Fold:
Amino acid sequence: MKKIKALSVAAIGAASLAIGNQSAIAQLYDVQFVQPSQYTAMSGAAVLGSSSDNWNQYLVNWSYDNNPNPMTLANAAGNSAAGMQVGVWNYVGASYWASGNTTTADPASLMEDYIYSAPAADGWPIKVQLSALPANASYQLVVYAAGNGAGQGATISLATDNTFSTILQSSTTTGNDRDITQGQGDAYQILNGTTDGSGNIFFEVANTSQYHALNGLQLELTAVPEPSSMALCFGGLMLLGLQRRPRSR
Structure:
C-alpha cells in the first residue's frame, strides 16, 4: 500500500515535470533582409518581442536568385539555434529605402532594407522555407511585406511544400508604409499554423500587378513536449492508473 502510494506521488511529479518542460523550446526568431553595404547589427521590438531582441540578417549579394541559400538562425536572445534555418529564393534583387535610419531600432528602421520581386504574373513570387524546426509545433508567423510605392502590397500565402501548389491560408498587405506601427494589414500580416512532420514552414509573397517586397519576418514557436518529456509523462500517468486498479481480496 505504502509502496504504491509512493509511486503515485512520483508519477504526479514526473507528469508535472514533463508538462513544465514544454516551455523549454518556446523561441522567437527575427529575420531582416539587408544588402551588405547596409549591414549593421540590429536589435529592437517589432510586432513580437522586446527592445533587446537581436535580429538575424539575411545578406543579399545577388540578383535574380533562384536558390534558397539557407542561413542558420539565432533566437531573439542572440543564442545560436543549430539546425533552424531560413532560405529565400525567387526574387529579383534587394534594395534600401533611404528615407529611414538603419542605425536605430525604431519600428520603421527595422524594415528599411528589403528583397523585391517582379509581379507574380511574370513568375516571380518570393518564396521562403523555414526548416529544421520542431515537427508538428504550433507557431505564429509575422511577415513584413510593404512596398514603398502605391499598389505594392502583397499576398502572403502559407503552403504545404516548396512547390506552393497547395495553399493553406493567405493574407494581404494593402499599404505602402514600412512603418510597422501602422498596423496589421498595412505593412505586415500575422499567420498561424503548425510545422509539418519534417519541421518545415513554407510561404510566398506575391503581387500580380506590381513589384512587391519582403522586409522581414518573425517566427514564434509554441512550446511542444520534447520526446523524453512525453515518455516521462506517459509513464507517470500509467503508474497513476496502476494505483487506481481495484485490489483483489
Observations:
- The longest helix spans residues 2-20.
- The chain is about 15% helix and 30% strand.
- Confidence is low (pLDDT under 50) at residues 1-24, 99-105, 228-240.
- The first strand starts at residue 28 and ends at 34.
